[in-house]
Amino acid sequence: MKKTRRRKTAVKADPAEDENASPKSNNTSPPIASNASSSSSNAPRSVNIKTKFPVARIKRIMQADEDVGKVAQVTPVVVSKALELFMIALCDKASEEARQRNSKRITAGHLKQAILNEVQFDFLADIIEKVPDIPAACEGGNLGGNGDNSEDGAPVKKTRKPRSRKAKEEDSF
């Protein structure tokens, strides 16, 4: 049997993680903490990503375009990594919006505000026009449609309509 070599397709996010990358990478710094001063910078945070975007599907989508010819093997891998970094940045901004409004959940309204407030995401402005804004009551605290708390602080129980019983066989005809 002939053995074939497999290429390593893992893309390193930070060259400082590799000890043998260069002699200048000896200074290891702790991950950047997210606070108010560092939130305006575009420095990447250390995020453990377990989910990967499907490379085969990305390649299929790229080849579906008639203008695209052959696609190099590494191209979908790079696009997948770029997509991961984009999603991390977008989710970080949306989580900042949610924290500012004392919300535990990120909603579509938080994503909309993150896109409107960040110049980097301007290309998504046309898509989010249809998304409703966050209600003004939500901005004051934990109120609103995210289901975290109700207005008076007590949980609200939803009541259901009782299930109707099946009709007897003689009644059905």
Automatic annotation (TrEMBL):
The keyword Transmembrane does not apply. Residues 25-46 have a biased composition (Low complexity). Pfam families: CBFD_NFYB_HMF (PF00808). Keywords: Nucleus. Residues 52-115 form the Transcription factor CBF/NF-Y/archaeal histone domain. GO terms for molecular function: core promoter sequence-specific DNA binding; protein heterodimerization activity; RNA polymerase II general transcription initiation factor activity. GO terms for cellular component: negative cofactor 2 complex. It comes from the Eukaryota. Residues 1-46, 138-173 are annotated as: Disordered. Its main location: nucleus. Forms the NCT transcriptional regulatory complex with nctB and mot1. This is NCT transcriptional regulatory complex subunit A. It comes from Sphaerosporella brunnea.
